[in-house]
Write a structure and sequence with these properties.
- This protein has 76 residues and is mainly alpha-helical.
Amino acid sequence: MIVQIAGYVLLLVVWSFVRIQSLRSKQKNKEAAVYGFLMGVSSIIGSLLIAGVNIPSIVVPFKIIFEPIGKMILMQ
């Protein structure tokens, strides 16, 4: 499993490096920074998923916020 995670991260790092250099050569520094941040987050999440770690869903905060509003609307 460690080899799979290392391979996954290595592949993402190489691909990200190539894409970021391409963006920077076109003077798109902000886009390169956003792309690098998103690839960093996705590599962390992907590594945890490969390792079998249970990651909480991002839907839960939205459900907590919007469920009472939806119930109020349906009661009217």
